[in-house]
Amino acid sequence: MKYSLHDLLDNVDIDSLEQEAALIQYFKNIESQPPQDLGIWSVDILKYAKYILVSGSRKSLTYLLEQGWNPLFTILIKESQIQNQWFDLEMEMVRKLNYTPGLLFHRKASQLGHKTLFNYKQSRQWQQQSWSAVEQSVNHLAASLIDLMGSTNPRIAILSENRLEVAITDIACLTYGFVNVPIQPAAPPAQVEYILAHAEIEAIFVSDAQHLRSIESILSKLPQPILW
After folding, report:
1. What is the count of structural domains for the chain?
2. Based on the number of CB atoms within 10 Å of its own CB, is 61 exposed (0-12), middle (13-18) or buried (19 or more)?
3. End of a domain among 80, 99, 118?
4. Is the domain of 14 the same as that of 29?
5. Are 62 and 101 in contact (CB under 8 A)?
6. What does pTM read for this prediction?
7. In the predicted model, what is the mean pLDDT of the chain?
8. Exposure pattern of 171-191 as b/e (b: 16+ CB <10 Å)?
9. Full 3-state SS string of the chain
């Protein structure tokens, strides 16, 4: 069955499962039958999105939000000149769904599993890390930090060159809501001291002995103790 936006708007009170099916079918249809009158379409899509935001199911709301990754839909939004209105609606959808980096990361990891997330070099050989492997490392790191720091929102810094461990630490911080302050590996000790003090950092990750010596040289100057 084919649905138009008018059909969706005329049947907003249908059962949530029917509503979800109609919404999905509409966006399948739009690929083969794009709207002819963008003026009418833009008014209708904003009106329908507002209805879904208030009364739609979580699945319908999620599906509508994820149309932001649909190239045709984004072109229609741009050509209709409603980017700002749609962006405001997207932000409201994100808040209502309580979308967080952690939720999105775990969701993608469950979907993509053993597919490769990172390629990296180790001993001059290219290696791969899957979504599942990275998720496991992220969970272990976060649990260890919480246990070590005695806090569910520790403030940490990273002093390191670009490497796999930095990416995993960064994802762990985004996923679990930790404060994460990256520091340029070439930063002089005085600058590192300033950042650590003013960001009230409680722990720092370093990549090698040289960075460790740099941190050790400024520890006594910091107003707060730091784990490293």
Report:
1. 2
2. buried
3. 99
4. yes
5. no
6. 0.70
7. 89
8. bbbbbbebebbebebeeeeee
9. CCCCHHHHHHCCCCCHHHHHHHHHHHHHHHHHCCCCCHHHHHHHHHHHHHHHHHHCCHHHHHHHHHHHHCHHHHHHHHHCCCHHHHHHHHHHHHHHHCCCHHHHHHHHHHHHCCCEEEEEEECCEEEEEEHHHHHHHHHHHHHHHHHHHCCCCCEEEEECCCCHHHHHHHHHHHHHCCEEEEECCCCCHHHHHHHHHHCCCCEEEECCHHHHHHHHCCHHHCCCCCEC
Model pLDDT for residues 3-48, shown as the tens digit of each residue: 566 666 666 565 677 778 888 888 888 888 888 899 999 999 999 8
d(CA 98, CA 108): 16
- The packing angle between helices 38-55 and 71-79, to 10°, is 120
Say how far apart CA 9 and CA 46 lie, in whole Å: 11
We report the CATH number of the domain holding residue 208 as 3.40.50.980
Q: 15-19, 77-81, 84-88, 183-187: which has the minimum mean pLDDT?
A: 15-19
Residues 140 and 204 in one domain: yes
Query: What pairing do the DSSP bridges indicate for beta strands 125-130 and 116-122?
Result: antiparallel
At 1 the pLDDT is: 47
Answer yes or no: is 80 within a domain.
Answer: yes
Ramachandran angles phi, psi of 23, nearest 5°: -65, -45
Location of structure tokens 């049947």: 11
For the chain, the residue count is: 228
Residue written as token pair 């496991």: 136
